[in-house]
Structure formats: C-alpha cells, structure tokens
C-alpha cells in the first residue's frame, strides 16, 4: 500500500471525507491534476482534517527545512503542556539513559536544551513537539524527554532518516 493510500485510509477512518478528482481542477494559482485526492474543509470533520494536515506549528508558523543543531542556537517550540517556549541548545552530543517500564535505554548523541530566562522549555506531555531554530524556523530536533531543568531531543536528521520521510 502506498503512503498516499495509507493516509487516505487513516483520514477516512476518522470520518473525514476524501474525494478524488475526475478532471483537472484549478485553484486560483495552482492546477491539481485529475486523480489527485481532495479534502474539503467545509465538511463536518473539516476542522480535524485541517489540524491533521496543516504543517504550521501553532503560534510559530511553518517549518522551513532542516538545520543541524549547534551549541548556543536559539530554538522554540509549541507543546501540548507548556504551549510556546523558547530556549538555547547547550549540547548536541549527549548520551542519555532513560528509564521506561521495560528497562533502561541509552540514547546516544542527543540534543540538550535549557529554557530561556530560567523557565522550563518543556514538561510531561510535550513529547513529540518539533523544535525549530528561532529566526529561520528550520527544524532542529524532536522533543522526547527531559527534566525540570533541561529538555532532550533527537536530531531531526536522524528522526527523518529512521522514519524514511523528508520535510515537505
């Protein structure tokens, strides 16, 4: 099954109406070719569709490519628990041992971030937030853990490579 068919199946399972164009469709400046999938946002689950498909990060905007993390790089993110926060990268090559119910796991060469102005950069529930470079909004990392004084993130290049995806 192709990625497109998988995505269409997931959207339809959530009650989102997904159509397929029988002929070319002009949308102002663009033309969608016949056979393209179309998700109209004026449907009962249109808001859900927008949230699932929109690449904008709340209060930040769209990511603009990727960049390698660097010490002292200023970053920001929007998380479920802490909302918008900013911080500074303090390490790009830290090995971290994290304890889970199934045991301890070592994550090598991780990014460490500390919040700006002595505030927390993240908290429980923010995992999965994309971390972006301030000023450019280039993706730097993917938040996965931390404490009250620091946040741990995977390098975005490693995440994309592991998932076999790329930034659009």
Tell me about this structure.
The chain is of the alpha+beta class. The protein has 2 domains: 3-53, no CATH class; 74-163, Thrombin, subunit H (Beta Barrel), CATH 2.40.10.10. It is built from 3 helices and 10 strands, in the order αββββαββββββα. Strands 5-6-7-10-9-8 form a 6-stranded antiparallel β-barrel. The chain has a two-stranded antiparallel ribbon with strand order 1-4. Strand 8 and strand 9 form a beta hairpin. It is elongated. The two termini are 21 Å apart.
List keywords for this structure.
168 residues; alpha+beta; Thrombin, subunit H; 2 domains; six-stranded antiparallel beta barrel; two-stranded antiparallel sheet; 3 helices; 16% helix; 38% strand; elongated
**What is the count of distinct domains?**
2
Biggest β-sheet strands, sense, barrel: 6 strands, antiparallel, barrel
CATH-defined architecture of the largest domain: Beta Barrel
Average pLDDT number: 91
In terms of DSSP E residues, the strand content is: 35-45%
Radius of gyration in whole Å, from Cα?
Answer: 19 Å
CATH topological fold name of the largest domain: Thrombin, subunit H
Contiguous helical run count: 3
Q: Output the helix-strand order.
A: HEEEEHEEEEEEH
CATH class of the largest domain: Mainly Beta
Task: Give the neighbour order of strands across the main sheet.
Answer: 5-6-7-10-9-8
The outline comes out as elongated
Distance between the termini: 21 Å
The name of the CATH superfamily of the largest domain reads Trypsin-like serine proteases
Fraction in helix: 10-25%
């Amino acid at each position: 099954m192709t990625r497109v068919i998988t995505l269409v199946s997931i959207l339809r399972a959530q009650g989102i109406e997904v159509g397929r164009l029988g002929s070319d469709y002009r949308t102002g400046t663009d033309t969608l070719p016949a056979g393209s999938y179309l998700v109209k946002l004026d449907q009962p689950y249109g808001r859900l569709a927008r949230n699932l498909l929109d690449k904008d990060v709340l209060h930040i905007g769209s990511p603009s490519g990727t960049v390698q993390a660097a010490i002292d790089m200023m970053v920001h993110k929007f998380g479920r628990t802490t909302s918008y926060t900013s911080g500074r990268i303090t390490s790009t090559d830290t090995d971290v041992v994290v304890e889970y119910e199934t045991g301890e796991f070592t994550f090598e060469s991780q990014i460490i971030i500390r919040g700006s102005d002595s505030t927390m950069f993240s908290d429980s529930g923010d995992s999965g937030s994309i971390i972006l470079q301030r000023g450019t909004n280039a993706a730097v990392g993917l938040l996965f853990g931390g404490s009250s004084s620091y946040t741990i993130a995977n390098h975005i290049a490693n995440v994309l490579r592991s998932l076999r995806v790329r930034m659009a």
